[in-house]
Amino acid sequence: MTPQLEEAERLFRLARRDQVAFEALLNASGVDLALACFHAQQAAEKALKAIMCLHGLEYRRTHDLEELAAKLTGAGFTPPISEAQFSRLTPYAVEFRYDDDVIHLVTGSEAAQLLFSLLAWVGDEIHKHE
Questions:
Q1: For the segment 38-79, what is each residue's pLDDT rounded down to a tens digit?
Q2: Domain total in the chain
Q3: Which of 93, 97, 112, 124 qualifies as a cystine partner to 63, CB 3.0-4.6 A?
Q4: Which domain holds residue 17?
Q5: What's the Rg (C-alpha) of the chain?
Q6: pTM to 2 decimals?
Q7: Contact at 8 Å (CB) between 48 and 8?
């Protein structure tokens, strides 16, 4: 197993862990959607970085999902999620974490569907390299 594949698998495990946290918080009573969507954003970020590692693409430390997706697309690895969809999750990484007056940019079901599609794609890509 190559170091790139090992790192991609590690990031994918972490992305799935954030997906589980997202789903648990989404279904918990009294929890604001912004807290759940923070974990959705984190899962998407780690999933994109897993694909980048898998293909030897470098990335800077960022929470910007559109930037990561654009870099992947530019290298010929187009995620199944549009950059516009990613732009609705990016603010949950930083801006909405420290604001108690959050404007919800995505519904829980939209975030769940986005994660389902993205993580399925990443899992398939990793499986091709095992």
A1: 999 999 999 999 999 999 999 999 999 999 999 999 999 999
A2: 1
A3: 93
A4: 3-129
A5: 14
A6: 0.94
A7: no
